[in-house]
Design a protein that fits this description.
The complex is a heterodimer. Helices cover 31% and strands 25% of the residues of chain A. By secondary structure, chain A is of the alpha/beta class. The longest helix of chain B is centred in the last third of the chain and has 38 residues. Chain B is flat. Chain B is mainly α. Classes of the chains: A alpha/beta, B mainly alpha. The complex binds adenosine-5'-triphosphate, iron/sulfur cluster (SF4) and magnesium ion.
C-alpha cells in the first residue's frame, strides 16, 4: 500500500456566529496517499472549502478547530507555531488554488511580481529575484502561457479567467508541493476552458508527482480525474471509495442521489434533483444529518448518528442501512 | 495615463473660470458702488473715475469680467485699499507660511493616521485595537480650534515645551519648533479620519481572496500586510489626502488666528474685518487655486495606483 501523506483524525471545526460557536465540520476522518488525487465532493455549503482552509490554516479568526489532528508526513501540523507552519508548510509542502480566479491575484501588482515573490520566499530568500525570473518564465511556459516574458509585466485584469487559473497553477507548482489543495479551480470557467485546465492539471500532477485534494461540487468533473472520492454532506464525510467503485456501487443514499443528478448516469429514466436543501449550520438535524432528505430513512436515523465504517475493502460509508 | 491627465487638466479651466466669476461678482453683490468698494475710504471722485475706466466698470459686466480676467492672467490682482499695496505681493509674502503649515499638518495626519490604522488592523479584535479605535474616534471629532487651544494650554502653558504664538526668528530649528503645535492642531481631525479609513480599508483588503492565495503560497504575514495589502488598501486614503489638503487649508485659518501666525487664512480673515475687498478676492482666489491643485494631484496619484486607469 502506498505511503500516506496526509491523515485527518476526528477533526471538528466551528465558526463563531453572533457569539455562538456552530459546528461546520464534524468527525472528519480522511487519508491521502502519496501521488493520489482525492476528490472531495458535496453540495454548496457542506464545508468543503472549510476543510481545505483548515488544512492550510487559512481559516478566519472567527473559526476554531474544536478537536482532532492533522498529520502531514507523520508530523502533527496542528501543533506547529504559526511561523514554523509558514516556513515549513505553506508554499513549501502545500499550496492551494482557490475557487474564484477573478479575485485570486492581487489587482494592483504585476503578475510577474506576484510569481517572483512566491519563488523568492520558496527559496527562503536565498536567491535574487533576477535569478528567479528565468524559473518563473519557464513555469509560465509550462502552464501554456504564450509569450511569458511579455505577460510577466502585465496586470491580472489583462488576463482572462482561464489564463489567471493557469497562473495560479504555475504559482502553486512553482513550489513543487507534495500536496495541492485545489478548491473548485474550474467552477468559474466555461466548459472548454475547464477541460483545458483539467488537462493541464493532470499533466502537472504527473510531472511533479503531487498529491491533490480536489474539491468540487460536481461528480461529473472529478470522475475522470480522481483516484478516490470522498463524499461530504453537512460537515461530515458520508462515503469514501475508489472512483470506479463509487460510480459502480454507491453505498450511501446521498451518493446515490448525487449520482442520479448527473445527466449521463443512466440508472433512472429522468434527471433528478435531491429534494430539500443542505441544512443550515444553525439547526443540523438530530441523528443522521441526511435523514430529512433521505428516502430510506427509518426510526434509528433520527436518533443516532451513523459512523463511517468500512463496508468493503477501501470502501467506507456512514449509513445505518449497512448495519440495520 | 497621458490622455487621462490631459483630460483632468482641461477640467481645471472651467472650474477656475467659475471661481473667478463668483469673485468678480462680489463687487456687484456687496451694497454700494463697486469703485467705492474696491478703493475703500480713501476714494476721491477722480480716483473712482480713473479706476472705473481702468477696470471697465463703466462698461457692461461681461466686458468688465474680461478685463478682470486679463488682469489676472497678467498676474495683477489689484491693490489693497490701504496704501496701494499690491495684493499679489502681500499674498506671496504670507503664502509660504500657510503652505508649510498645511503640508506639515497633512504629513503628520498621514503618518500618524496610517500608523494607527495599520496597528489597529494588525491587532484587530484585541483591547489594543479598541484603544486605538477610541483614539481615532476622539481625534476625528475634535474641531481644529479646540485642538489648538488644548495644545496651547497643555504644551505651552502647563509644560512650557512649545512656544504658543508666532513663527520664531527665521532659523530652521526655531521655525520647526514653532510649527509643531500648529501643525499638530491642524492634523488632529484628519489623523483620526485617516486612521479609521486605513483600518477599515486594510481589514476589507485582508478579507479578500487574493490575500488567502498569497498566504497559501507561503508569503510571510508582514510582507502580505505591508506590501500586498497596503498598496491595495491605500487607494481610498490617497483620494482623501487631496480632499484633506483642501480642508486643512480651511483649518489653517483657525490655527493661524489662534497661534497668531502669518498666513493666507489670517490674511483673508483680517481683510474681511477691514473690508479690504481686493485683498479678500485675491486671497480667496489663491486659496481656491491651492484647493484645485491639491485635488488634481490627488486624482493623478489615484490613477497612478490603479493600473486599469494608468494603462489607458
Ligand atoms: N467565515 C465564516 N463565518 C461563518 N460561517 C461560515 C464562514 N465561512 C463559511 N461558513 C459557513 O460554513 C458552511 C460551509 O462553508 P464552506 O465554504 O466550507 O462550504 P463549501 O462546501 O465550500 O461550499 P461551496 O461549494 O459553496 O464553496 C456554510 O454553511 C457557510 O455558510
Ligand atoms: S442513516 Fe438513515 S437517513 Fe442516513 S443515509 Fe442512511 S438511511 Fe438515510
Ligand atoms: Mg467552497
Amino acid at each position: 500500500m502506498p505511503e500516506k501523506i496526509l491523515k485527518i483524525d476526528d477533526l471538528a471545526v466551528e465558526y463563531k456566529n453572533k457569539g455562538k460557536y456552530l459546528r461546520v465540520l464534524q468527525g472528519i476522518n480522511l487519508e491521502l496517499k502519496k501521488e493520489e488525487i482525492l476528490a472531495l465532493v458535496g453540495e454548496s455549503g457542506s464545508g468543503k472549502s472549510t476543510l481545505g482552509k483548515t488544512i492550510l490554516r487559512l481559516l478566519p479568526d472567527s473559526a476554531r478547530i474544536k478537536q482532532g489532528k492533522i498529520i502531514f508526513k507523520d508530523q502533527d501540523i496542528c501543533s506547529l507555531s504559526e511561523k514554523d507552519f509558514n516556513d515549513q508548510i505553506r508554499g513549501q509542502e502545500m499550496a492551494m488554488v482557490i475557487q474564484n480566479p477573478q479575485n485570486a491575484l492581487n489587482p494592483v501588482f504585476k503578475v510577474g511580481t506576484q510569481i517572483l515573490d512566491v519563488l523568492y520566499f520558496k527559496s527562503k530568500k536565498q536567491k535574487s529575484r533576477k535569478e528567479l525570473k528565468k524559473e518563473a518564465v519557464e513555469i509560465l511556459k509550462k502552464v501554456g502561457i504564450s509569450d511569458p516574458e511579455y505577460r510577466f509585466g502585465e496586470y491580472p485584469h489583462q488576463f482572462s479567467g482561464g489564463m489567471k487559473q493557469r497562473v495560479m497553477l504555475a504559482m502553486a507548482f512553482i513550489s513543487n508541493p507534495s500536496l495541492l489543495i485545489a478548491d473548485e479551480p474550474t467552477t468559474a470557467l466555461d466548459l472548454t476552458v475547464e477541460a483545458q485546465i483539467l488537462n493541464l492539471l493532470s499533466n502537472l500532477v504527473e510531472e511533479y508527482q503531487t498529491s491533490i485534494l480536489y474539491i468540487s461540487h460536481d461528480l461529473g468533473v472529478v470522475a475522470g480525474l480522481s483516484d478516490r472520492i470522498a463524499v461530504m454532506y453537512a460537515g461530515r464525510i458520508v462515503e469514501v471509495a475508489q472512483t470506479r467503485e463509487l460510480f459502480a456501487e454507491p453505498n450511501h443514499p446521498y451518493t446515490e442521489a448525487l449520482l442520479n443528478c448527473l445527466p449521463d448516469y443512466q440508472k433512472t429514466e429522468e434527471l433528478q434533483t435531491i429534494p430539500g436543501q443542505v441544512p443550515d449550520l444553525n439547526n443540523y438535524p438530530t441523528g443522521c444529518n441526511f435523514h430529512p432528505r433521505c428516502s430510506y430513512s427509518f426510526a434509528r436515523c433520527r436518533q443516532e448518528e451513523p459512523r463511517l465504517e468500512e463496508i468493503d475493502s477501501e470502501h467506507f460509508s456512514a449509513c445505518f442501512l449497512n448495519d440495520p | 495615463m497621458f490622455i487621462y491627465i490631459t483630460k483632468r487638466l482641461l477640467w481645471v479651466i472651467p472650474t477656475i473660470l467659475t471661481v473667478l466669476l463668483v469673485l468678480f461678482s462680489l463687487s456687484y453683490l456687496l451694497p454700494g458702488d463697486p469703485a467705492d468698494i474696491i478703493l475703500g475710504p480713501r476714494a476721491t471722485p477722480e480716483m473712482a473715475a480713473e479706476l472705473e475706466s481702468r477696470l471697465g466698470l463703466d462698461k457692461p459686466w461681461y466686458q468688465s469680467y474680461l478685463i478682470y480676467l486679463q488682469n489676472i492672467i497678467k498676474g495683477d490682482l489689484g491693490s489693497s485699499i490701504f496704501k496701494d499695496r499690491s495684493v499679489l505681493k502681500v499674498i506671496l509674502n504670507v503664502l509660504p507660511y500657510t503652505v508649510i503649515l498645511t503640508l506639515a499638518g497633512m504629513g503628520l495626519a498621514v503618518f500618524n493616521g496610517i500608523s494607527i490604522g495599520l496597528l489597529a488592523a494588525n491587532y484587530n479584535n484585541s483591547y489594543f485595537e479598541k484603544f486605538l479605535t477610541m483614539i481615532s474616534f476622539i481625534t476625528a471629532s475634535t474641531p481644529t480650534y479646540i485642538a489648538g487651544v488644548l495644545l496651547i494650554v497643555i504644551f505651552s502653558v502647563n509644560f512650557n515645551l512649545l512656544p504658543s504664538i508666532g513663527i520664531g526668528d527665521g532659523g530652521l530649528l526655531e521655525t520647526i519648533h514653532h510649527l509643531i503645535g500648529p501643525a499638530l492642531a491642524l492634523s488632529v481631525g484628519w489623523t483620526g479620519y485617516i486612521a479609521r479609513l486605513t483600518r477599515s480599508s486594510m481589514l476589507e483588503t485582508l478579507d479578500q481572496e487574493f490575500i488567502q492565495t498569497e498566504k497559501s503560497f507561503g508569503i510571510p504575514r508582514y510582507y502580505i500586510l505591508y506590501k500586498y495589502a497596503l498598496k491595495k488598501a491605500i487607494k481610498p486614503i490617497i483620494t482623501v489626502i487631496g480632499l484633506g489638503i483642501g480642508r486643512l487649508l480651511g483649518g489653517a485659518v483657525f490655527v493661524e488666528v489662534i497661534f497668531n501666525r502669518p498666513g493666507l487664512g489670517r490674511l483673508i480673515v483680517d481683510s474681511v474685518n477691514e473690508r479690504d475687498l481686493p485683498m479678500v478676492r485675491g486671497g480667496v482666489l489663491v486659496a481656491a487655486l491651492l484647493f484645485i491643485i491639491a485635488n488634481l494631484i490627488a486624482d493623478i496619484s489615484y490613477a497612478y495606483f490603479d493600473p486599469r486607469i494608468r494603462q489607458k
